[in-house]
């Protein structure tokens, strides 16, 4: 791992007067130090991106594509190293980290191709002596603010389409997990990306630095993944200068199991959706709705399978679930479980901190959960699956949609008609029908409805937010 990282501004690695520690959430040990940027550093990074934009914008698409492919190949060559860094600073099991790095590389590869497919159009004019042309051109300087739970995947999912479109970037990764981003930018530099095209700011003061990154007039677009609360603040900041904004925010995913579902497959799906990354994903299950007639059997199978988990350091081969990211996360999960049990929920499994070291929490299963409990409406972001029961399709659809969030939802049924009714009726941007991991594909549009965000990332849709339309009318 990098012992002490630097900022990357205008093609140069810049040291700062101070640094901040990066710790392993499984042990609490310091594993590195990151440069602590000030507002002045952020201003310099924006200026570098602003000055680099005309040259990058006018770089032919096939040349931008070639550079992205070089970056992709370097990521693939260093994927094991990147996964180890990621596990060290974030805590997820190494196999999960390797999967994330592969997914991150996939975004770079995908947009290396999409760079060559930014097409305009011609539109017939009503006047015979006029012609209409529509061009797609890059927005300009983009600031990308990424979260700690996917330190590689969220970086490339934002940077790759921006670069493909011809935009320049200022990246600010989460202060908990900056080292993965540093290594990715080092590889981008090795790939030959011109100075100023990518700039990296790491900081322990995200509020002050982030305010500049989201209000400066030179910045024309902000792309953010994180909490709904912060997303709303960013949207307000960006609105002062009418910047484009892409927001991938919180979720509260329902996981619906009908009486005709294959219960073993449904439990397997719940495990993959709920407990991956110790429940620290924005699309992970938050509410498990099981038909009353099969709820007891489902809970029994789930408890048997979840009890097999091996909690430990992500670098240990047998580990299937790692730690939470920090003390705040641990406190929130504990509070949700205590509130639910205190209001009558039944604790089937887990329900307490695991061990004395690190931020581990036992994989937990609750039954008899009701709507007045905090866990029914608040995003837990931890390894707790609360089971509710229902009786009719109409009832569960209404309860599932009764949320401010609308990111992901899951349905398990073997009834084709029901699967169509539910997938079309659920007010969510992503629906997995008998599929616990619908968002793994780089080729599909990822994003939410309601307070879960604005815009889409991934697929050919993911480059559009970085492009402006220009309509040209030519008379002759």
UniProtKB/TrEMBL annotation:
GO MF term list: succinate-semialdehyde dehydrogenase (NAD+) activity
Cross-referenced Pfam families: Aldedh
InterPro entries documented for this protein: Ald_DH/histidinol_DH, Ald_DH_C, Ald_DH_CS_CYS, Ald_DH_N, Aldehyde_DH_dom, Aldehyde_DH_Superfamily, Succ_semiAld_DH
Swiss-Prot/TrEMBL GO biological process terms: gamma-aminobutyric acid catabolic process
Domain Aldehyde dehydrogenase span(s) in chain numbering: 13-472
Tagged with keyword Acetylation: no
Classification via CDD domains: ALDH_F5_SSADH_GabD
Keywords: Oxidoreductase
Family: Belongs to the aldehyde dehydrogenase family.
Name used for this protein in its record: Succinate semialdehyde dehydrogenase
Originating species: Tumebacillus permanentifrigoris
């Amino acid at each position: 791992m990098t012992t002490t990282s630097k900022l990357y501004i205008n093609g140069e690695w810049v040291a700062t007067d101070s640094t901040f520690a990066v710790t392993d959430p499984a042990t609490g040990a310091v594993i590195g130090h990151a440069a602590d940027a000030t507002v002045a550093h952020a201003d310099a990074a924006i200026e570098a991106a602003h000055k680099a934009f005309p040259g990058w914008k006018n770089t032919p698409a096939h040349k931008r594509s070639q550079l992205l492919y070089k970056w992709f190949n370097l990521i693939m060559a260093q994927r094991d190293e990147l996964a180890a860094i990621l596990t060290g600073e974030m805590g997820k099991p190494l196999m999960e980290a390797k999967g994330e790095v592969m997914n991150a590389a996939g975004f770079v590869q995908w947009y290396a191709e999409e760079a060559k497919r930014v097409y305009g159009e011609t539109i017939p004019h009503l006047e015979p002596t006029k012609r209409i042309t529509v061009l797609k051109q890059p927005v300009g300087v983009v600031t990308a603010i990424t979260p700690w739970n996917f330190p590689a995947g969220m970086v490339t999912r934002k940077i790759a389409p921006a670069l493909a479109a011809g935009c320049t970037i200022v990246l600010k990764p989460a202060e908990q997990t900056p080292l993965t981003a540093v290594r990715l930018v080092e590889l981008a530099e090795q790939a030959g990306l011109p100075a100023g095209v990518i700039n990296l700011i790491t900081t322990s003061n995200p509020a002050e630095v982030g305010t500049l990154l989201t209000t400066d007039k030179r910045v024309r677009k902000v792309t953010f993944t994180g909490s709904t609360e912060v997303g709303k603040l960013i949207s307000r900041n960006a609105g002062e200068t009418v910047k484009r904004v892409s927001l991938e925010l919180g979720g509260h995913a329902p996981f619906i199991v009908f009486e005709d579902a294959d219960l073993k497959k449904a439990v397997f799906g719940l495990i993959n959706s709920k407990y991956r990354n110790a429940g620290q994903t924005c699309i992970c299950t938050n509410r498990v709705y099981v038909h009353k007639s099969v709820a007891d059997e489902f809970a029994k199978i789930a408890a048997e399978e979840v009890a097999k988990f091996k909690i430990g350091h992500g670098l240990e081969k047998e580990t299937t679930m790692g730690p939470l990211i920090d003390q705040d996360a641990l406190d929130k999960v504990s509070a949700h479980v205590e509130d639910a049990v205190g209001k009558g929920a039944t604790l089937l499994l887990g329900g307490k901190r695991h061990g004395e070291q690190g931020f581990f929490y036992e994989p937990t299963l609750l039954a008899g959960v009701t709507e007045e409990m905090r866990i029914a409406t608040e995003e837990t972001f931890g390894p707790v699956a609360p089971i509710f029961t229902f009786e009719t399709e109409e009832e569960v659809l209404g309860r599932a949609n009764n949320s401010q969030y609308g990111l992901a939802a899951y349905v398990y049924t073997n009834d084709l008609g029901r699967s169509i009714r539910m997938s079309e009726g659920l007010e969510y941007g992503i629906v997995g029908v008998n599929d616990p991991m619908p968002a793994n594909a780089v080729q599909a549009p990822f994003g939410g409805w309601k307070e879960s965000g604005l815009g889409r990332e991934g697929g050919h849709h993911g480059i559009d937010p970085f492009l402006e339309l220009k309509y040209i009318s030519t008379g002759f």
